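Justification of resources, computational component.

The compute hours requested in this renewal are based largely on the per-chain cost of generating structure records like the one below. Each record pairs the submitted sequence with a full structure-token output. That output is archived, and it is also reused by downstream analysis tasks.
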Amino acid sequence: MRGVVAFSAVCAAAVVVAAGTPAIGSTRADSLQHMTLIGDSVADAIPGDDQAVAVLRQGIDLDLEVAACRRVDQDSCPGPGGVRPPNVVQLVNSMGSKLGPNVVISVGYNDFEDQYAQNLETALTALKAAGVTHVWWLTLRAAHHPYINMNNDIVNAAQHHPELSVIDWNVYSRSHDDWFQADGLHLLGPGAEAMALLIHKTLLDDGIALKPVRVATAALPVAHRGKPYSAKLSAAAGLTPYAWSLLARAPKGLHLEASGAIIGKPLVKPGAYVMNVRVKDAAGSFATHRLVLRVKI
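The structure output for this chain reads:
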């Protein structure tokens, strides 16, 4: 899939490893698609922010390969301690098939404007040789004029590389100076989380990231006061195992187990009782739903 992607921010949950009973037909952990993020000092803010990592990891098998001073195909500049990290092409050649089929790249802030287009071509050739089938490349925040032309190079490359999609970080971040340090490029916490969310939303839209869990139960069976009651909540999508909980206490006499089973004997007056349920999955997503339990005589 090829194109330029931008979207509006939405809320995301922190990663929680859930325990519960696997649902029939749901996705197993070993079926998550692998994605490698290759970045320079801008994307390097993501692994330093727990929320950003939690957002990006949802529904994918994530590998973060980010390092300050990384370039695409020129020798990287000296990073912390004077160490030059491998450039994108060197990293791709060394990792090979370990990269997996999906690679996201956010590199270019240390590169040279007049060589960037050719460096892109070299990197895409190396990625293809490593078995990568889909590449997403983030545009550069155009805080300096050379980045405008370099962004054009990214977009132009996508026109003749069907495996390349463009994620327009420049447009998405344009009106959010509060996401950045004083240089307008390096990310503060909210910027790292926004970049992670943009990448994840793109992967979700392109069918790479697993869709978040949702509550599939639409209604509860009627209960009778003092009589044994049993119902089973169900979820869809996400990653098993699921874990269920309530946002408030259940009607007296009833209990919701982590497996989603509601059991017991209702000891309340006849009427309608709201049960706000929450399900968490092993990929870090969760969902809540308002259900109504009707108790009769």
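The first strand starts at residue 4 and ends at 5. Residues 1-28 have pLDDT under 50 and may be disordered.
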